């Protein structure tokens, strides 16, 4: 049995994956943004071990989530599933777009502060191929709201998550670190017109969370629905870009990697 944390698991794919992992006999720690969402998460997945709460758009609350998780004991896997897609700039109290905070900064902070698990899974998207791959201003600190675009910001954040997967695979050889494109699914984020198959997506999540299959033991990989390995944007292999992203997150959050 493994203990697995899934961020953003009050609904959508996160909840479906949690339910499947519980069914498979694992101990699942859910995450929700607030108390009401925590109730929703528990109702949808009553077999979960517990639920941690906190808003991932806030640096202080994200740090508090890490503290909650560490008090529970060792984890086998962390799935960075939470993410934002649209909604405009929505400047956080820390001064960056909410999308950048949730999709990029929060996975960095949680990975840095949670006691190191055996496996890390960072959620990407096929839309990362359209990303801006330069690391000049990854958190929109200089460009600001006038230059912000939902589509570009989302695509780029999903590229960031592949950079994270590869960076941690390189830096932490004792941890299997992977990126996952869950596919275009008819969730609240994906919309009713999405054509993906939930079962294929869940199968890939579960494969990486359990880490038993040979393919899942390859650190630094990029995976797609149906338990398949894909080929990400070639720029994701740029070690300098990986390190620039880590540095930008470290300086902004004041959280250093061990």
UniProtKB/TrEMBL annotation:
Keywords: Oxidoreductase. It comes from the Eukaryota. Pfam families: adh_short (PF00106). GO terms for molecular function: oxidoreductase activity. The keyword Oxidoreductase applies. Belongs to the short-chain dehydrogenases/reductases (SDR) family. This is NAD(P)-binding protein.
